[in-house]
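Lab notes, practical 5.
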Amino acid sequence: MQDIFLINITGKDRPGLTAQLMGVLAEFGVNILDIGQALIHDHLSLGMVVEIPHDSSSALKDLLYAAHSLNISIDFTPIALDQYEAWVAEQGKERRIITLLGRKLTARQLSRVAAVIAEQRLNIDIITRLSGRTSFRNPDAYPKACVQFAISGRPDNEQLLRTRLFQISEETGVDVSIHLDNIYRRSRRLVVFDMDSTLVQAEVIDELAKVAGVGDEVAATTAAAMRGELDFTQSLRKRVSLLTGLEERVLAEVADRLPLSEGAERVTSVLKQLGYKIGIISGGFDYFGHRLQERLGFDYVFANRLEIVNGKLTGRVLGEIVDGAKKAEILQRLAVVENISLQQTIAVGDGANDLPMLSVAGLGVAFHPKPIVREQAERSISSVGLDGLLYLLGIRERDIARSEQAERQGAKAA
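Output from the prediction step:
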């Protein structure tokens, strides 16, 4: 009859350690039923569930001798067959991913998130650091901190879980995002971004209005529209009408001085390198969208078009307005064009007119959002730049760095 044991090994890591331990088990024909390993600052934590088909006492004795010679600690826990079979039956349980993202992470933040997980009778299976290691001598090398919890089980109250995590985010200043760990999480293919106050740190129409001498009036209307207090289409037509007579050359002047959001170049570059299609779906203007397309390599640009006659703006927008509903419709259409499920799409935006797009995307992310968006969006990035999106996708810093290195080498070769 087989004996089943949980084996836990801890101690200082060294090359060949795992090979030596496995060599001992191999002599007894041991089957590995489960295995996991973590390494923190050269300190090893290795866990195994094993089936020892013959004399378990001899196998464990030899393993204990090997551990002693390697100066590591080892514990054995016998597992009853019924207990093992119950564990096997739990396969396929729902798993969720909770991501904590900030400039730095504190024990207080992790403690509060872990407490909420426990309150909902969920289990933390794996904790993974996605960000690079922080250097005290060179703190700007990796100015972000991100860890990811993989949790299993079904929460007692899904809405309460999300509400409590949102409260922790508000109170401690860390971004806390949660989503189901399913097949789509690993097969995202299309990422679309809002433009104004998402890809660029400005509302373009406000910048144009400053040149036209109506900056304060337009900015107030823009802010109200982004908060969801005004109908977007009506407010846009009103604001554009105030630009009547503005010379076309001003568009280029404004485009030249638009500041990109932190992390915009990095996130688009890495996504392209990893094979994602990327697009802009904006309630702003296509002139500026196409300028960003030239600079950052977007595959798609959808935005409103200003009417220009004799080198001057007429104060009108051509065609159908790209409002909130239109944004969602365009994203759905792009999914069809790319022959992917909506669950494989990602949308990023900040304003009330982005909510429809965020809600239909497989992964909707609010970026430095207006209050109404932060309250309604299931996940947001407020503490870091736009490249924080890469962590929400589960991409590790080391993989990001490799992607950037590959791009640089490709550029040199070209």
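Observations recorded by the TA: The chain has three domains: 3-89, 95-181, 191-408. The chain has a mean pLDDT of 92.
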